[in-house]
What we know:
The chain is α+β, with helices and mostly antiparallel strands. 42% of the residues lie in helices and 18% in strands. It has a three-stranded antiparallel β-sheet with strand order 2-1-5, with helices on both faces. The chain has a two-stranded antiparallel sheet with strand order 3-4.
Amino acid sequence: MKGIGSINREALKEAKKRMRAVIDRTVSIGISGTAQVILEYARKTAEYHNVTGNTMASLTCGVYHNGELVSMSQPFEGEAKRQTLVEGEKYEVEEGNVYVAETGTEHYYGNERAADFLLGYQPSRNGWAVVFCTGTEYSTYLEVEKDLNVLTETSDYVRKMGVSIIGGKLRFAKAEEVGELPFPMPDDMEVPF
């Protein structure tokens, strides 16, 4: 027969486990909501024409907890009109207005590439991680060659507004953790509560 102390320890252990699950779910909901605000900002500040819709459709956010992808959001995934273009390919945007692709090596849907990236991404540490990405090579071309905003200004926005949207310490992934980035990222940034 178990003593009262043993029963209390078990009950306390179970209560902590349940409380941790509630806290984790609450944090996940909060992070996901914040991520939606950030994705909307990326949409509103987009400076590109979004000819096929793939770059906008591929704006994606993944939320990770202890190395596991717990949620992925692609709020604009339905905006792709067709697969991406390849360099030199002509596409009639509207009657009489033909766009000639300046970059691209194959046809694909950007939102699928973004999802594949996040499904394969492994955060380097435990805790919570939030990753924003696009799934088109055209995104890098727009940022680097055309100096247009796809996600860079959104990243700047998060750095400036971090105090009001989240608290604590933000840690930015290093390039070697995620591959080549079209812009430099700091190692971390303190965000006071």
